[in-house]
Amino acid sequence: MQKLTRKWRKSPGESHFDEDDKFSLPTRDENRPIDSQEQEELVRSLENVQTQQSVLWRGVFSGLLSCYVAFLVYSVYQQAYYPWELRYHAYFMYEVDAGTIIAADWAAILTCLMTIKGLLHESKHQRRWLWSSCCIGMIVAVFWLHHMLRLAKFRWDVVWLPLGPISGAGVCIYVEYLLNVSSEEVRKLRGYMYAYKAR
């Protein structure tokens, strides 16, 4: 408040552009084009940020899916050596045999592993891995939903069995799409670079 009061009390002859004056208009044109070197540095920094973000988010979602894969491997082990001890498998004791349950869990594991491969390995076949995992995830979802609907009572607590793998694949496809859009925007920006020549 004291600084503001001092500014208003200044006489007209005093300079209004002292070092404390934060209300002065800019003396530099902010709309001027930037030169080629500045453009290159800006685009390169954006490319580095985009690459770091891509690695980060691919790693995060691959890590989450890896945890789910570890859980499914444990589920297969339990069903193979201690059949029907897990509650979410025991619901289907009279509907499906133990081997079919194990096969369904392995299909879910395959879905997740294909999704992880498609997410981590950037190549021209990347989308094929992701969409293939989505197709297998749909088969797993249909299998579990079919048997859940045959139960005397629909069990909402095991709805993750059909939705887990397909949801993981779907979310990863969306993440990959967003990262590709971001990368494409940076590539467009590099294409729009112009050479500024001072007059």
How is this structure best described in words?
By secondary structure, the protein is mainly alpha-helical. The protein has one domain (36-191). The protein is 69% helix and 0% strand. The protein has 6 helices and no strands. The chain has helices at residues 2-9, 36-81, 87-90, 98-120, 126-150, 160-191. Helix 2 (36-81) runs antiparallel to helix 4, helix 4 packs antiparallel against helix 5 and helix 4 runs parallel beside helix 6 (160-191). It is elongated. The two termini are 44 Å apart. The model is unreliable at 195-199 (pLDDT under 50).
Q: Which helices and strands occur, and which strands form pairs?
A:
Layout: H1 2-9, H2 36-81, H3 87-90, H4 98-120, H5 126-150, H6 160-191
Helix pairs in contact: 2-4, 2-6, 4-5, 4-6, 5-6
Q: Give me the strand/helix succession.
A: HHHHHH
Number of helices: 6
What helical percentage do the residues reach?
A: 55-70%
Write down the Rg.
Answer: 29 Å
Question: What number of structural domains do the residues give?
Answer: 1
Terminal Cα separation, in Å?
Answer: 44 Å
DSSP, total strands: 0
Question: How big a fraction of the residues is strand?
Answer: under 5%
Oligomeric state of the chains? single chain
Describe the biggest sheet?
none
**SSE-based structural type:** mainly alpha
Shape: elongated
Mean pLDDT: 84
Q: What are the low-pLDDT stretches, counting only 5+ consecutive residues below 50?
A: 195-199
